[in-house]
Design the sequence.
């Protein structure tokens, strides 16, 4: 009975901790020599409701690649991660931006430390509107999460949009919905980003 209770508790803790995963990115690139700071509040939509806050720092490497570091707190004790983004097919008149990011996240919650290898494929398309550029995007983020006694493979479906207001060329706003596909949770996120 004690063993069953331990397995159920470990499964519960590992599952809830995966809820902080989000994408908050489109196929748009941070230019080489440019930087971007962003802050993302996230509301987790599941049986184990919670709130996380994640800060990110991006920098351009080449015209089609960039790097990101992130730090989060909230429902989880902390998360820290790094990602490499590569978009080999840029957004053009005849095709959407196609690419993705790969990285690793270390997180801790309720005394359990998790290491996650993450893959975030990306598809986005920029549209000009009267208020600025709107960049809807989609992703099917997945990964492998390791704890001391368990390995899981969380998968989500993500839809979101980036708004680059016409009169605020260095600011972007994001809205994102994450839907549980397997061993993950749904969430609603927003973010504001500043490029300099």
Sequence:
């Amino acid at each position: 009975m004690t063993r069953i209770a331990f397995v159920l508790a470990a499964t519960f803790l590992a599952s809830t901790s995966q809820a902080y995963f989000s994408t908050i990115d489109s196929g748009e690139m941070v230019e080489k020599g440019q930087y971007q700071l962003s802050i993302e509040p996230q509301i987790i939509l599941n049986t184990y409701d919670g709130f996380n806050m994640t800060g990110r720092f991006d920098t351009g490497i080449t015209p089609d690649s960039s790097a990101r570091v992130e730090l989060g707190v909230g429902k989880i004790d902390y998360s820290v991660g790094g990602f490499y983004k590569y978009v080999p097919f840029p957004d053009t008149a005849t095709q959407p931006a196609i690419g993705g990011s790969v990285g690793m996240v270390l997180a801790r919650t309720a005394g359990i430390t998790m290491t996650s290898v993450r893959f975030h494929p990306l598809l986005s398309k920029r549209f000009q509107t009267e208020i600025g550029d709107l960049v809807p995007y989609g992703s099917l983020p997945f990964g492998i999460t390791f704890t001391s006694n368990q390995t899981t493979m969380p998968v989500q479906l993500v839809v979101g949009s980036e708004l680059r207001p016409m009169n605020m060329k260095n600011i972007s706003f994001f809205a994102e919905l994450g839907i549980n596909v397997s061993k993950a949770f749904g969430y609603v996120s927003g973010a504001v980003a500043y490029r300099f």
